[in-house]
Write a structure and sequence with these properties.
The chain is mainly alpha-helical and 230 residues long. Helices cover 69% and strands 3% of the residues.
Length: 230
């Protein structure tokens, strides 16, 4: 979990950097669902005081990745089939709303951003034997999905979508750790969505994105059900 030293540079405060570092640790599974977050251990690992650490955890509570319980302290939020189903349904609604709006009002610069994000992601190798390649692809994957809808220019909606994507990625990355190659041609799915979006074919692009999210959610629910089975 520890990485490069945290430095308050005026743009990215220590709390903001901690949020990013802790979010990645939770989403990637380094911090397991339901596990206790020991404040003293985390403070020592990151070399920070309790104040920015508590601020970071408060932000992650708002994002649904951390929970606080009286007498038990901070814990990584648990996973469940009901939670995953809700995340999938909300992603289908919010991301499709954002994409349709982006296609309607997105600029030429947005089109270029979408295609560049797609190119970076699809040209990035994913090698299970090299964790750094997986982390790089994950960063580009997140960038692609958020760039795709950024043209909607609706900050509240984009924030909701960003939170839902992080919540979803916890389940998806757990699945990929056990099925490194995935189960379908995801690169082709992403390409079809992006090409439909920049071609301003809203019905096609939105249907493709909805199917992409739904199929992923269905696979993850099946995977989680197997994990939770007695």
């Amino acid at each position: 979990m520890p990485g490069p030293a945290l430095v308050d540079d005026g743009k990215n405060t220590m709390a903001s950097q901690l949020v990013d570092r802790l979010r990645e640790a939770i989403v990637s599974g380094q911090l397991e669902a339901g596990s206790k977050i020991n404040l003293e251990r985390a403070r020592g690992s990151f070399g920070v005081s309790l104040s920015p650490l508590r601020e970071a955890l408060a932000r992650l509570i708002a994002d649904g990745l951390v929970v606080f319980e009286d007498n038990r302290g901070y814990r990584v939020a648990p996973v469940s089939l009901a939670n995953l189903e809700e995340i999938t349904r909300l992603r289908e609604e919010f991301e499709i709303l954002a994409l349709r709006q982006a296609i309607a009002i997105g600029t030429v610069d947005w089109e270029g951003d979408v295609m560049r994000a797609l190119h970076r992601m699809n040209r990035t190798e994913r090698d299970p034997e090299q964790p750094d390649t997986l982390e790089r692809w994950e960063a580009y994957h997140r960038e692609f999905h958020l760039t795709l809808i950024a043209g909607c220019r609706m900050p509240l909606l984009l924030n909701f979508c960003s939170v839902l994507l992080s919540l979803n990625d916890r389940y998806r990355r757990s699945f990929l750790r056990r099925t490194p190659g995935g189960d379908r041609n995801v690169a082709q799915e992403h390409s079809e969505i992006a090409q439909g979006a920049v071609a301003r074919d809203a019905d096609f692009a939105c249907a493709a994105l909805r199917e992409h999210i739904h199929r992923t959610g269905t696979n993850l629910q099946r995977h989680l059900a197997d994990r939770l089975a007695p």
